[in-house]
Recover the amino acids of this structure.
């Protein structure tokens, strides 16, 4: 029976100490912060992009690639690609998020070729020609389908 008494004494001690431990924890916790008077309003949701947004982003990426490759190979119109991109952002960048996406696509195209083409080679020139053809076809398709 001593074992049963020891168990009973331990259980009783735990039951008696539990409220004290809870009170000690409550005292140790910092007081609850006052609720903010007015939480900041979330930014207005961005309006949905036009149906041609994926093609526009692809065109911006091609322009970035051409800006890099034509500069690398000393093309006469190298700066034109940056100017065309600025015009595209001006015309299509209705929201800051949209301008950021267009700019990011341009930069992605620029960087993709800067990682693999360090000097102008036949391959660089061929890539530039191929991209110019692809960009021209894409812009004609966009203008034909969505142009006014």
């Amino acid at each position: 029976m001593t074992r049963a008494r020891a168990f009973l004494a331990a259980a009783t001690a735990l039951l008696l100490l539990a409220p004290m431990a809870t009170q000690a924890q409550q005292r140790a916790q910092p007081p609850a912060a006052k609720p903010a008077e007015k939480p900041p309003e979330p930014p207005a949701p961005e309006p949905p992009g036009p149906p041609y947004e994926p093609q526009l982003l692809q065109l911006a990426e091609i322009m970035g690639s051409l800006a890099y490759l034509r500069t690398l190979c000393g093309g006469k119109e190298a700066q034109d690609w940056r100017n065309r991109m600025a015009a595209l952002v001006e015309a299509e960048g209705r929201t800051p998020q949209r301008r950021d996406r267009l700019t990011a696509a341009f930069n992605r195209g620029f960087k993709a070729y800067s990682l693999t083409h360090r000097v102008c080679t036949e391959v660089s020139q061929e890539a530039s020609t191929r991209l110019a053809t692809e960009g021209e076809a894409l812009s004609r398709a966009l203008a034909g389908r969505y142009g006014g």
